[in-house]
Design a protein that fits this description.
five-stranded parallel sheet; mainly beta
Length: 262
Amino acid sequence: MSDPDHDSLVRRLRQTGRLAKADLSALSFDEDWPDSLHFDACSAEASRFVGGELQASAWTTCRFARCEFANVSFTGARFEDCRFFDGDGTHGCTFRFCDLRGASFRNCDLMLSMFNVCELWDVTFSNCRMSGVTFEKPAFAFNSARPAKSKKPVRLAGTFEHCRMDNAIIREANLSSLRLTDCDLSGAELHGTSLVNASLRGTNLSNASLRLADLSGADLRGADLSGFDLQDVQSFAGMQVSASQQHHLLRSLGLDVFPDET
């Protein structure tokens, strides 16, 4: 026997393509949904959403507490001013095996959330609170087919801008060509990550663990490198830094830099 609340929500979505101020806890995402559904000020608590195609959906000021999204396609979805963090201060939400290609999160609270084996090509996180977030085996980029006039394949990577990501956990992940600009990654666990050609301009990396990370070609200009030790990383060939950062980096190699004598 079907749930009347679920049936009512499904009817409203199919008729109008929109839900506002609805409790989504009874809703099954595993339906044949049209693209571009809108969810405004909706909420769910302690719910597990499995499967479903919610491509190009829009979510505004929605609240999710202790929820899990498993095998859900959010390709091209837009999340704005949404909260995925439990008010009691101990639980984030989990995205497991989700397709988030081209999705965007703006002004969202993703504190302590977990992204487990998710497709994140070309994803954007902007002005989000992501303290303690975990990315486990993320797929942030892939090499697309070569454009007609290009000799190199296009690498579609994700973007993080102005995000608070202190104490984030992103171990042994391929973050090549990722943009992490003006973010707070202080105390983050980045052990064994590949940051080849990544941009970390203006990002706070103080006391972040970068042991065995590959920073070849990475742009760290303007980043806070307090506690950064070049001897810990696997490679830094071609890494870009600002002139003001060179003294700290050379000291980590046991070198002292003095001004030229006049």
